[in-house]
Amino acid sequence: MLSENLKNLRKIKGITQEELAIRLNVVRQTISKWEKGLSVPDADTLIKLADFFEVSVSELLGVTVEKEVDSNIIADQLSRINEQLAAKNRRSHRIWKTIGIIFVAFVVVNILLVLLGTVSFYSFKSDKTTTLTTESEIITNEEE
After folding, report:
1. DSSP-derived 3-state class of residue 47
2. Which residues form the HTH cro/C1-type domain (predicted)?
């Protein structure tokens, strides 16, 4: 349906494939493939096409849209969307909370390591009970 609609709308506007391609920033062969049904445009390009031809994307795709939609169906869809968003928010909150806890634990461990290193350094530096003897003292003690 898209291929036929695209070709008809282009002919109604009176433009060539080349002119349409230039307006959409694609090559002429791309327009040809769309019109032959060999490929389809991406979502952004569909929107550009619909805007250019002044039709809705649904009309461009050839989809018939029901004008009257049951309000219960809409309410159910909105309810599902809200549930999905709430679940996503809870998951996101849980992830950030976990990242925060890991970060705080990392900082605390680093602070403890720095404190332990500082205390060990000063206790080693202030230890004055170490005695050193030289070789000459040992030799004199043996001669006696």
Report:
1. helix
2. 6-60
> Which tokens hold the place of 90?
């809870």
The CATH number of the domain covering residues in 2-61: 1.10.260.40
Cβ neighbours, 10 Å, residue 83: 10
Identity of the residue numbered 137: E
**Which residues in the chain come in under a pLDDT of 70?**
64-69, 124-144
For residue 103, what are its two tokens? 């970060």
Task: Give the Cα separation of 90 and 99 in Å (integer).
Answer: 14
Q: What tokens does 5 get?
A: 């609609």
Give residue 44's pLDDT: 87
pLDDT number for residue 134: 62
